[in-house]
Amino acid sequence: MNKKKKYFGGIEGGGTWFRCLIANSPDDVYKETSFRTLDSGDTLQKVANFFLEAMAEVDIEAIGVGCFGPLELREGQADYGMIEFSKMDSWTRVNLYKEFTERIGLPVYIDTDVNAAALGEFLWGAGRGLEVFVYLTIGTGIGGGAFVNGKLLHGIQHPEMGHVMIAHDLEKDPFEGGCKFHKDCWEGLASGTAVQQRWGIKGEELPPEHEAWDLEAHYLALGVSNIFLTLAPEKVILGGSVMVVPGLIEKVREKIGAISNGYIIKDKNINDLDELVTLPGLGEYSGRFGSVALAVVGGKDS
């Protein structure tokens, strides 16, 4: 009798899609699928069914879940793995750790979507070989995951880099900001949602030469500069749907150089911003392979 091949499962939970992947690495993928993020109960069951059906053909060692937050990630807490609140009512206080453990019956390792993506980039992407780097996703919102001294950074809660405050000149940009908590925090000014709210059109419908992208690059450069000042990372990786705009990362690098004025990045490296601020090595799959990475690394630690 043939022995079933072993794989790891990954679940990237987003506000629009739940994307599922069964793989060992980017070079060894068994199957993938996606489900619209709708009612929590229906979506979670569709995700679980995908893995349960696959388990008839392959062995899945563990499941990694990288999901939108805020999440309770302190192990030992009664609500470990819970989405603490969400603008989508049916997802508020859903305990992903318990739901997937019970529905699938496998070990589950959970973290934020951006932390998962950072781990994926460390194992297989643009973060390989680095001790300190930050992965940022610039999309519907803005989130950041930090990899520090060989580990994902956690504290009393997971980092919420998208909600840091940055300079906002209301005369040049009268848009009040789109964050429902802080108005003009970084996410409120520079997320894909903010771009659409400010200009009245989705970012993907704006041409690359539109003035929106100079302003976007300015705000992104301010936030990334703050991250260099705070954590002194070896690299900042910019992912997410907004970063596919042609020429945007080049604009961001240029503005970081101007903002730093030779201070943030050592003089000998100021001309190496193309190495210090990069796109993801895994492209749009950072979150999916990052979720698989959570299972791979978690399985080794167990």
Topology:
Layout lengths: L5 E8 L3 E9 L2 E9 L3 H15 L4 E9 L28 H9 L3 E5 H12 L7 E7 L3 E7 L2 E2 L33 H5 L1 H8 L12 H20 L3 E5 L8 H13 L12 H4 E2 L7 H16 L1
Parallel strand pairs: 1-4, 4-5, 6-9, 9-10
Antiparallel strand pairs: 1-2, 2-3, 6-7, 7-8
Helix pairs in contact: 1-2, 3-9, 6-7
Summarize the structure in words:
- With 302 residues, the protein is of the alpha/beta class.
- It has two domains: 6-115 and 284-301, ATPase, nucleotide binding domain (Nucleotidyltransferase, domain 5, 2-Layer Sandwich); 128-279, ATPase, nucleotide binding domain (Nucleotidyltransferase, domain 5), CATH 3.30.420.40.
- 34% of the residues lie in helices and 21% in strands.
- It is built from nine helices and ten strands.
- It has helices at residues 40-54, 96-104, 113-124, 186-190, 192-199, 212-231, 248-260, 273-276, 286-301; strands at 6-13, 17-25, 28-36, 59-67, 108-112, 132-138, 142-148, 151-152, 235-239, 277-278.
- The strands form two sheets. A five-stranded mixed beta sheet has the order 3-2-1-4-5, with helices on both faces. The protein has a five-stranded mixed beta sheet with strand order 8-7-6-9-10, sandwiched between helices.
- Helix 3 (113-124) crosses helix 9 (286-301) and helix 6 (212-231) packs across helix 7 (248-260).
